Amino acid sequence: MARPKSQFICQECGAVHSKWSGKCSQCNSWNSITEETVTATPGAAGKAKGSQINMHKLVGETAPPPRLSTGIPEMDRVLGGGLVPGSATLIGGDPGIGKSTLLLQTLCKMAMAGQDAAYFSGEESVEQIRMRGSRLGLAANDMPLGLATSTNAADITASLYTAQPVAVAVIDSIQTMFLPSIESSPGTVSQVRASAFELIRAAKAKGAAIIIVGHVTKDGAIAGPKVLEHMVDTVLHFEGDRSHHFRILRCIKNRFGPTDEIGVFEMKGHGLAEVANPSELFLADRQDNVSGAVVFAGLEGTRPILVEIQALVAPSTMANPRRNVVGWDQGRLSMLAAVLEARGGIPLSGRDIFLNVAGGVKITEPAADLAVAAALLSSMSDLPCPRSCVVFGEVGLAAETRRVAHPDLRLKEAAKLGFDQAILPPAKAKDISAPDGIALNYASDLNQLIATLGGMKDNSL
Fold first, then answer.
1. What confidence tens digit (pLDDT) does each residue in 57-96 have?
2. 300 and 258, same structural domain?
3. CATH number, domain at 96?
4. Mean pLDDT of the chain
5. What is the DSSP string of 285-351?
């Protein structure tokens, strides 16, 4: 008979410890280690012989995987064309950001297109889901969408095996699921790992696309063991500031398509609405003749997005000047401020710096360095940048600028929205095909950027 034994497992990173401790030595999180009971495998079970595995050649005839359209083009874009039958997708996001709303809208769209769908909730009752569907205007009598409330992963797995085949199923959420065979509470590392394994195995056996909702930690990472992200085929993050009405669905991992794709949604009274042209929406509230505001031509996956970067530089009365950042990396801002002072002679060490990416967007690519530098210089000099100019490029520690990927896509998006100037790192003529009507201003280093902005000051109004 298997002997139960105890392990001390960190609920943040999944690290196993020999005894309880107040702080995890792997991820440095406090009060995250809990005791879990595991069942030891009998010695006879490990002596079973395996069978030979057939090997296949790398080259062969393989058809591309079929796709199930979600009925929401923005979500299909992020998924690489739609859901793949038998795939597992993990979506995470802050509480109240709209994960359940987005997935309910997705299931209703697919059900109205004739796909059998199932929604398993461990957090809400059927009445609550019906109320949300009615509020969003999604209720339809002939819709092949089944609702169920359960936290037993074994029951959900049995339903997927025995019920009529479903094309897509949603599990909301994996932290509420448990297996009766594991003696630990729902949400622990053992329960999350084992429940996810059983659900994914059932979905792949029945050829159903399964979407699993995951909670996130205070740092924004999906709660539970990291192995959960390795088990699934696609990992999505639904992000945004709840004080803004924009939401961004970002692809972190995708075995069936490109990563780093984003879909932009707007939260309205009838649910989440797609934003076909996010650049135009993000720039809709721009103010004229304001110093410290620069338009950055960014790229998320294959989609170019124009956003406004706002900077405010003010004298500081504190011993350690503040560096407050919203939507960008604070460490990169500190590096850029040091380069501007050491290489460009711009006195920033005794000043507070506040940086904001308008619209609640989070920028991760280093191509925003040159736009941030331009915004800081504009705020320092109190001279507005030209309204019809976009800026992009990476900045190194020697104050040199570096080329970034896909400048053509960035310039094309800028020209489409009426911009007629661009500041960017120098590149070979064959690498850039500038659209008609847009003038290119090359800056090989920050000193050239300063000179370029100074030459544009007469056109800044």
1. 888 888 888 999 999 999 999 999 999 999 999 999 989 8
2. no
3. 3.40.50.300
4. 88
5. TPPSS-TTEEEEEEEETTEEEEEEEEEEEEE--SSS--EEEESS-HHHHHHHHHHHHHHH----TTE
